[in-house]
């Protein structure tokens, strides 16, 4: 860092952190920024716009003035001894150039530092309080500032606001483009946060891809919500890294002191809970803390603890939903995991599966589901298949293929009776390794299905790079199929695309006869939904098979006759 031309933005950050007698002046010799300690020393003389000689009259002295002007006109930084009266402690100032004028650091009661010493001092001060990668204030300074902000509020003064900011989908950028691109993204993100700030707002890099902003002296909650909206909007535009547009949103949690916390730890916890709510609500949004969020979080923690023992207590079980091939053939069942909590009752998979994935429980649970489903399939006629969903988390251990092979051998089921369903999320995480895993499973003779096709990051490259046996059209496109022309066009296109690639198509969420008729007319290979057969307990599947083509099969035949 060249102190003879120190960046003024850096110095503005230093002013917020230093205990030094630091001040900045413009080209008209007028005060623009100053440290709080300088104001405490010189009182009313320190106001924005004050002339430099009003604070340092010694600069009217010929020797001091000439040395000051030399630095001001582009010379190297210099330490200047100030004249002093008899018995007065030594005083010196270190003068250095900035982008728009000069800066001064005053030393009292000691000999003046050399230019090299002052330069080293500035660098060390900045490094101790700032993040090396982004230039924002660091976690250490964040903790100090948050405590100072909370200590300063009270009475009629406005409350302090804390905004916790987390980047959405940052991990996928690191995994797909590399850590260098990830670092560049963090720098660009920090720039967007910095650009959104106004007076009374300071930004920090808290950890990893987590940032924070502290607001002081603002009307709340309106100002915090305004800033959060500005940040969410700023992150909707792509970041361009090595010529590649990268989309990374921001989720924001807001909390206010002292309302939501009287110390830093309490306020950070409240903002973090609000951030979690923003993530849960779909990300790319901001949420303000309220007590109900805390209650929901406590309920989630209770579920997390219960889930760890749910398998051994026999609370997890499987239901099987029929898969129907027109006009009326039952070709298999999909295994659907359920949890019956002894106190709460039935808990939806959409609630407990993410908990299991986050807590590393999916390997154990997934193995149990696959083994139970395969054993149940042995009780059915040998031509019926069983479909089992795989979580993206099951691919992380690297032992999925071994687990599947071991279960096939232990149960004694033919591999071609098993269909493993994955979502496109699997293909986003460690893509090469996961494709290799799918290819190995395919070599074993297991069928592979791409579930929820069209609702995530649908890429035709998936269909080119891996020979899927089945595409499952998500119920999002099926629910309004009778009336929505766009859904009809999309579903029709998926069916034709899949058939052109030699891939079978299954439609999920078929709830009405009209939906079934339309899909049969468009040559959809397999239908699944409550209209054709609701999820059944293990014992009920045998009865369903015996009565086919009744129930779902008969409903489908009646739909066919109505065509």
Automatic annotation (TrEMBL):
Domain EAL: from-to ranges: 300-549
Protein's name according to its UniProt entry: GGDEF-domain containing protein
Matching InterPro entries: Biofilm_reg_signaling (IPR052155), EAL_dom (IPR001633), EAL_sf (IPR035919), GGDEF_dom (IPR000160), Nucleotide_cyclase (IPR029787), Rev_trsase/Diguanyl_cyclase (IPR043128)
Record-linked NCBIfam families: GGDEF
Residue intervals of the GGDEF domain: 158-291
Annotated source species: Mesorhizobium hawassense
């Amino acid at each position: 860092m060249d102190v003879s031309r120190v960046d003024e933005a850096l110095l503005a950050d230093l002013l917020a952190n230093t205990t030094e007698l630091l001040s900045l002046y413009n080209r008209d010799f007028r005060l623009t920024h100053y440290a709080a300690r300088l104001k405490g020393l010189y009182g009313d003389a320190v106001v924005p716009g004050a002339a430099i000689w009003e604070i340092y009259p010694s600069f009217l002295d010929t020797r001091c003035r000439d040395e000051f002007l030399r630095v001001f006109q582009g010379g190297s930084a210099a330490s200047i001894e100030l004249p002093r009266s008899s018995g007065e402690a030594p005083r010196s100032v270190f003068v250095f150039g900035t982008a728009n004028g000069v800066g001064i650091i005053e030393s009292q009661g000691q000999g003046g530092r050399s230019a090299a010493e002052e330069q080293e001092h500035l660098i060390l001060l900045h490094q101790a309080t700032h993040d090396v990668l982004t230039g924002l204030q660091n976690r250490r300074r964040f903790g100090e500032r948050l405590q100072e902000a909370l200590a300063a509020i009270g009475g009629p003064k406005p409350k302090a606001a804390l905004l916790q900011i987390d980047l959405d989908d940052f991990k996928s950028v690191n995994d797909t483009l590399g850590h260098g691109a990830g670092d560049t993204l963090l720098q660009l993100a920090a720039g967007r946060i910095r650009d959104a700030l106004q007076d009374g707002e300071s930004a920090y890099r808290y950890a990893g891809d987590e940032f924070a902003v502290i607001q002081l002296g603002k009307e709340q909650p309106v100002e915090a919500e305004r800033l959060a909206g500005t940040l969410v909007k700023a992150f909707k535009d792509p970041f361009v890294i090595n010529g590649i547009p990268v989309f990374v949103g921001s989720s924001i949690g807001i909390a206010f002191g002292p309302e939501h916390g009287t110390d830093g730890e309490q306020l950070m916890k409240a903002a973090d809970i609000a951030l979690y709510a923003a993530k849960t609500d779909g990300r790319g949004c901001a949420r303000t803390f309220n007590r109900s969020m805390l209650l929901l979080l406590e309920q989630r923690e209770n579920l997390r603890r219960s889930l760890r023992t749910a398998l051994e207590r026999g609370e997890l079980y499987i239901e099987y939903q029929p898969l129907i091939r027109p006009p009326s053939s039952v070709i298999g069942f999909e295994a659907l995991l359920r949890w019956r909590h002894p106190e709460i009752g039935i808990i939806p998979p959409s609630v407990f599966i993410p908990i299991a994935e986050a807590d590393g429980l999916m390997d154990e649970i997934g193995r149990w589901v696959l083994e139970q489903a395969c054993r149940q399939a042995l009780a059915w006629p040998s031509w019926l298949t069983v479909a089992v969903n795989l979580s993206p988390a099951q691919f992380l251990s690297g032992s999925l293929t071994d687990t599947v092979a071991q279960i096939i051998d232990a149960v004694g089921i033919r591999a071609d009776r098993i269909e493993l369903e994955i979502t496109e999320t699997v293909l986003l995480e460690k893509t090469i390794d996961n494709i290799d895993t799918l290819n190995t499973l395919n070599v074993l003779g297991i069928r592979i299905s791409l579930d929820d096709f069209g609702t995530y990051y649908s890429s035709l490259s998936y269909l080119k790079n891996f020979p899927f046996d089945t595409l499952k059209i998500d119920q999002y496109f099926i629910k309004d199929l009778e009336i929505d022309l766009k859904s009809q066009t999309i579903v029709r296109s998926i069916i034709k695309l899949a058939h052109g690639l030699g891939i079978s198509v299954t439609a999920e969420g078929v709830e009405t006869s009209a939906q079934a008729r339309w899909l049969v007319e468009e040559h959809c290979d397999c239908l699944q939904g409550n209209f054709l057969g609701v999820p059944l307990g293990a014992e009920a599947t045998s009865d369903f098979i015996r009565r086919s083509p009744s129930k779902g099969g008969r409903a489908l035949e009646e739909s066919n006759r109505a065509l």
